[in-house]
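Quick log. Single chain, no ligands specified.
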Amino acid sequence: MRSLLLGAIGLVTTINTNAQLSTASPRVQIMDSAFPIKSLGRERRIWIYLPADYTTGKHRYPVLYMQDGQNLFDAVTSFAGEWGVDEELDRTNLPLIVVGIDNGGAKRMNEYNPEDHERFGKGEGKAYLEFLVNELKPYIDQHYRTKKQAKYTGIAGSSMGGLISYYAGLWYPKQFGKIGVFSPSFWISPGLINLTKEALHKRRHANQQYYFYAGKKESPQMVSDMEKIISTLQPILPKESIIKRVSPIGEHNEASWRSELPNYLRWNLRSRK
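-> predicted structure:
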């Protein structure tokens, strides 16, 4: 296992020609700079945030898997600003391990979409989720003190990352019990409502919890698309298991998602069934 403590040396010489200092917390590590994605024949950088008392304690922690790892912890690696996941967890000392998976760059639209698309090409989302479930999660559970059960395991992302996180909850309810769906790109999957109806099963999904967020200043159909999916889930999930948050000023960007992050993280650690 290869770990690089970002707070100690930053990422200056390797990824930023302007010598901008890393903003990542000392609690953030690069678990592996080239973790193999066997299901896709690729490699990927994996970040991990460990709670303050991880090295001194012996107890186990819930885990949150998040997409677009470049944008979670460090302004140096982010596309348009970071979420500030580490700053929020440092501030609150919430007992949570966060695993950030870098997106695939030019392959992002493919890896985060399970369906083939006329414009973006082959959908690789099924293989990507197989990687999360069969390769990455077992590795994390083996090498870190985690609570492995679904009720202690969350997955989240925004935009296309929100879409694939939703699919993860839909297809792998035994692995992911807490689903965070931020500004999801449901528009790219017009058959998702029918797929949701076909996949939902009370014995498998009823104990899951979903957190949906969107902003009114995003695309015209963002909120309505999200509400249609929520309505499809409601016959299976108890009312209290679905949170819907709509910001009147929310836009489709990291700043808006960062502003919602504190509410989401507190919800993610609420008592689990």
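The two ends are 33 Å apart (CA to CA).
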